[in-house]
Amino acid sequence: MDITELILADHREQRRMFALLDEIGDDPERLGPVWHRLAVLLEVHADAEERLFYPRLLAVGSGAGDSAGPTEETKDAIRDHDDIRDALRETGRHPVGSQDWWKAVRAARLANSDHMAEEEREALADFRRHATLAERHELAVEFAVYEAANSAGVPLRDTDPDRYVAGHAG
Ligand SMILES: [Fe+2]
Ligand SMILES: [Fe+2]
Q1: Buried b vs exposed e over 125-147: b needs ≥16 C-beta within 10 Å?
Q2: How far is the CA of 7 from the centre of ligand 1 (A)?
Q3: Would you say residue 67 has pLDDT above 80?
Q4: Is the pLDDT of residue 132 over 80?
Q5: What ligand has the least distance to the C-alpha of 15?
Q6: Which domains are assigned to the chain?
């Protein structure tokens, strides 16, 4: 197993679930369960990355792509995760299938698409270049176990990017 592959696989599943919403129309009976599943995937994935992946990126990364280094990669990611969490909260304020609900879903999709592209280009590239294969494997197993253990979802809690990076320094 490899954490960078596992994260890519999660991203693919998220894209697939957003595509499934396109196919359903406005029937709340069908949209509701699919959206609930996708929202759980998004929140648990971001939480697992913050608990397991980004601390190790901060420790071993040294930049990739256009990024200034692992600190910037991490702060960007956490800011994006907070945007995604905001959009997830907003969907909960509107009836499933309503115009305002779709607007919030589109905002979540946009924030997540932008975030995945940057994370794949920078944080994952950095980790592939600088973490050992053994660590990539061990982290993948931990990540998969964490996601399985929290498959019902986690509370939506914002993370402060500066405090997060300071808390994982050294
Ligand atoms: Fe991700
Ligand atoms: Fe992420």
Answers
A1: bbbeebbeeebbeebbebbbebb
A2: 6
A3: no
A4: yes
A5: 1
A6: 3-167 (1.20.120)
